[in-house]
Amino acid sequence: MSRSGYSGEMGNVQLLTHALIKSVEQEAAASARRRKNFNFHASAADNPHRMLNVLCRGTYVRPHRHVTPPKSEAFIPLTGAVGIVLFDDAGAVAAAHRLDAGGPVRGIDLPPGVWHTVIALTETSVCYEVKPGPWEPASDKDFAAWAPGEGEAACAALVARWEALFAAPGALPGGPVYNGG
Questions:
Q1: Which long-range contacts (C-beta less than 8 Å, at least 24 apart) are formed by 45-50?
Q2: Torsion sign across C-alpha atoms 110, 180, 121, 35
Q3: Domain boundaries in the chain?
Q4: What is the per-residue pLDDT for 167?
Q5: Which of 116, 156, 164, 166 has the maximum number of C-beta atoms within 10 A of its C-beta?
Q6: Beta carbons of 67 and 113 less than 8 angstroms apart
Q7: Around 157, how many Cα atoms within 13 Å sit in the side-chain half-sphere?
Q8: Contact of 155 with 77, CB cutoff 8 Å
Q9: Angle (nearest 5°) at CA 151 between 115 and 132
Q10: What is the pTM of this model?
Q11: Are 147 and 63 in contact (CB under 8 A)?
Q12: What are 92-151's pLDDT values in tens digits?
């Protein structure tokens, strides 16, 4: 995909256009993972990383945290709505936050080391995401041992349980979201 923008006296300016968003939405919808990133940063070594993160309803993002090295992470929905679910070390839901491009909560800034996942609460949600670089695939994410790996049979049911957190505001389960069964 070509980058939108221009180069000149102010460097390589990239524009976040409707056409760019639609293109990445189409790629996400066609992806088996039901999501797609578009990076504004030029390389994995850049700092910070800035990207569009397009999520389609039903995508599974395995709960994870960023600890090696510690990294914060920010999400701002540009279209649609997402749920950010935070967990304790045992996998119990600690908090659930609805972020909506139309408000009243428009974004979240997560400190390093917080277990979290993100789910699409609308058919397609487009977030602007920022986190420190560089990106090292072997250490970028510490995946939760208490959550299934991507592609496992339990993923769809787990996403449905997380979606239910947002159907009844204030109703969080007391036990683990996933117990391996």
A1: 45/133, 45/134, 46/133, 46/134, 47/132, 47/133, 47/134, 48/130, 48/131, 48/132, 48/133, 49/129, 49/130, 49/131, 49/132, 49/133, 49/135, 50/128, 50/129, 50/130
A2: positive
A3: 10-167
A4: 85
A5: 116
A6: yes
A7: 10
A8: no
A9: 40
A10: 0.87
A11: yes
A12: 999 999 999 998 899 999 999 999 999 999 999 999 999 998 888 888 899 999 999 999
CATH superfamily of the 10-167 domain: Jelly Rolls (2.60.120.10)
The DSSP bridge partners found for residue 128 are 52, 76
Predicted confidence (pLDDT) per residue in 137-154, tens digit: 888 899 999 999 999 999
Q: Is the pLDDT of residue 170 over 50?
A: yes
Report the alpha-carbon distance of residue 74 to residue 181 in Å, rounded.
Answer: 32
Compute the distance between CA of residue 109 and CA of residue 98 in angstroms, rounded to an integer.
13
Q: For residues 66 and 112, is the Cβ–Cβ distance under 8 A?
A: yes
Whether residue 69 has a cis bond before it, omega within 30° of 0: yes
Higher pLDDT, 159 or 173: 159
